[in-house]
UniProtKB/TrEMBL annotation:
This is Ureidoglycolate lyase. Its EC number is 4.3.2.3. Coiled coil: none annotated. The keyword Metal-binding applies.
């Protein structure tokens, strides 16, 4: 099932996406949550209920219109994993990590499809990174690897935009500052529920910059799978419904190219992941 957040005249609504049309799920069934985090917390136990509500409204032609936003507009946590593709570690001349390399972005960096990535004047070398994003449904702490997928509501497409001059060009390496400027975490267009993705470690992933393919790989190259990541990080802090995890990027990033390729005013990025859709964003220099 495809779920999204839509800005409507009645406010932001959690919707089901059916043949490119939108069903307001709470309007279809008042017992359902009207926000995405609340809806995700009801998965997977209420998935059939949500599907039935969407099908009834669709059959009756009860669709709504509005602006498609990031599926989770303000996640409680935006967790990111670095150097998690074998082929990307090779291109970065970095050793294969023994455990997940973790950092974070602020929720204020999240934007949705068709929104604009804004390049701050203070950032001179801004890169793109296509990423599979895990969306947490059921919360928990000290989650076992065997139980990890029971905590996944679904998946979406992400772009871990990165200011390399801040991330690695500043004293000590300022990963947080390089990763979390406003608009540097596009996600969307939808959350595809976990039942529709048979194996998140077997999906084609690519990024196009102005129509040219820059990254083209598969999540088969992930060093640490979704279950390993969840088990690792939940040893230290609780995961909550609506938290998102960027799982790393494949090779082809601009920093590793010769000559390097960095984002500039007027660029358009398109991240595509098999079964999850295309996330498209334009770029503007501030």
């Amino acid at each position: 099932m495809h779920l999204a957040t839509l800005r409507t005249n009645a406010g932001n609504r959690a919707v089901a996406v059916i043949e490119n049309q939108y069903v307001d799920l709470q309007a279809a069934d008042p017992t359902l949550a009207n926000d995405m985090a609340g809806l995700l917390a009801e998965l997977p136990q209420n998935l059939k209920k949500i599907e039935d509500a969407a099908e009834r409204a669709s059959a009756a032609g009860e669709f709504v219109t509005g602006e498609l936003l990031a599926p989770i507009t303000r996640p409680g946590k935006v967790i990111c994993i670095g150097l998690n593709y074998r082929d990307h570690a090779v291109e970065s001349n970095a050793p294969i990590p023994d455990e997940p390399i973790c950092f974070s972005k602020f929720s204020s960096s999240v934007i949705g499809p068709e929104e604009t990535i804004e390049l701050p004047a203070a950032c001179k070398t801004v890169d793109y990174e296509a990423e599979l994003v895990v969306v947490i449904g059921r919360g928990g702490r000290n989650i076992s690897r065997e139980d990890a997928f029971a905590h996944v509501a679904g998946y979406t497409v992400g772009n871990d935009v990165s200011a390399r001059d801040w991330q690695i060009g500043r004293p000590g390496g300022q990963w947080l500052l390089g990763k979390t400027p406003d608009t540097f975490a596009p996600i969307g267009p939808y959350v595809v529920t976990a039942d529709k993705i048979e194996n998140p470690s077997d999906l084609a992933i690519s990024l196009r910059l102005n129509g040219e393919t820059m990254q083209d790989s598969s999540t088969k190259e992930l060093i640490f799978g979704v279950d390993e990541i969840i088990a690792h990080i939940s040893q230290l802090f609780s995961l909550e419904p609506g938290d998102i995890i960027f799982t790393g990027t494949p090779p082809g990033v601009g920093m590793a190219r010769k000559p390097p390729v960095f984002l500039k005013d007027g660029d358009v990025t398109e991240v595509e992941i098999e079964g999850l859709g295309v996330l498209k964003n334009s770029v503007k220099q501030l």
